[in-house]
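Re: duplicated header lines in exported C-alpha cells

Our pipeline writes sequence and C-alpha cells for each protein into one text file. With two proteins the header for the second block appears twice in some exports. Here is an export where it did not happen, for reference. First protein block:
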Amino acid sequence: MHVHLPKPLHGWRAFAGEVGIIVIGVLIALGAEQGVEDIHSRAEVKETRTALDAELAHNLAAFQGRLRIEPCVQARLDELERILDREPGRVPLRHALESALTINLEFAVWDAATGEARSLIPLKPKLQYAQLYDVFRHYERLRDRESDQWAQLTDLDLNAQLSTQEVKQAKVTIKRMRRLDQLLPAYASYIERSTGPLGIQPDTNVDAPARALMESNRAKFCSPLM
C-alpha cells in the first residue's frame, strides 16, 4: 500500500520558503513584543526608583531635623534634672514643658513596590534601599519610644511639689531617653554612608505652614524653662 503525500501547489521548495517566512514573521513579532515588555519594565523600574528616592529624601529630611535639635534635647534633659532636684516653689518656669515636634517617616512606596518592578532593580541598589528602609524603621521605633517618654515628662506639673515617686520615675525616664539618644550617631553614620551612593538628598520642599509650626516649636523647645 502506497501513501501519496499531497504535493504543494508550487512545490516543496516554495512551501519551505513560505513556512520559513511565517516562522521568521512569528519570531519578529515575539521579539517586538519582548522589546515592548522590556521598555515597559525599564520604565516601571525607573518610576519605582524615582518614587523610592523621593520617599527616602523625605525620611532623610525628617531624620536630619531630629539631629538638629539634639543639642536642645540634651540641654532640656539637663535642665529637667536640675528642676527635679530643686526645692519646690522656687523660680517658677517661664513656660510649660513641651516635647519637640518631629516629622513622621513614610514607607508606603517601599511597601507597595512589590513584584516585578522591585525585583528588576539591580541587586546592589536594591540591597541599599532595603537596608536604608530597615534603619529608618528602627529609627521610627526609637522616635515612638522617645515620644512616649516625652509625654510622661510633660504630664508632670513642674511648678508644683512632686512626690518622691514622681521624681524617681521622671529621673528613670530621663536616663532611658539618654540611652536612646546614644543610638543616633550610629544611625546617622549608617544613613550617610547608604544615601550617598544612591544620590539621595534631603527633601527641602516643606510647605510654609508646616515649616512655621516646626520653627515655632523648635524655638520654644530650645529656650530655657528657668
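Second protein block, exported in the same file:
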Amino acid sequence: MLHCLKMKNIFKTNIKIPLTVKIKKKVNKLFIEGSKGSICLDLSFLTLSNLTTNQKKMKYASFFRLFQKALIGVNLNFIIRLTFVGVGFRIEAIENGFIKLKLGFSHLVYIKIPSYIKVFMTKKTFLVLKCIDEQLLKEFSSKICSYKKPDVYKGKGILYKNQVVILKEGKKK
C-alpha cells in the first residue's frame, strides 16, 4: 500500500511514498527516513518573499525534484559503476577506509572513502559505489575519474560503466 502526496500542481503528478519511508518536519528541516538510511532536506530556501511567480515555480520544482531523489535514495540507494580500461589500470585493494589504485604512475594512488559511501570491488577492473545521496555519490565518482580521464586516442582511463569514448584518428603519413 502506498501513500500519495500531491505537490501543489507543480508538475501535476503524485509522489508515491512507500510505507517503509517515514517523513518528519522540524522547524525548517524535513527528515526522510527509509530502510537504507535518512536524509535531511532544508526548507529555509523556500522562503518566497520578493520573488516573481516564475522564480517561485523554479524553487518549488527544484525542491520537488530533491524530494523525489531523497525518496529513491533512502528506499533503494543510488549506484555508480566504474570500469578501469587499459593495461596496468586496476584496483589493488579496498582496506581501512581507502581505495588503493594502480594507474600507471610510479606510485599507488590512495583515495579516502567517505563514511556515507559503500564501495565494492567485483573484479580488479570494476568498482561499484553505493550511496543514498545522488549528488555526493556523483562528486566522489568524478573525483575518482579525475585521476585518469579517458584518453581520446587509445580509450584508456577510468570510465563510467556505459560510457562510450569516441576515438580520434591518429597521425597520418
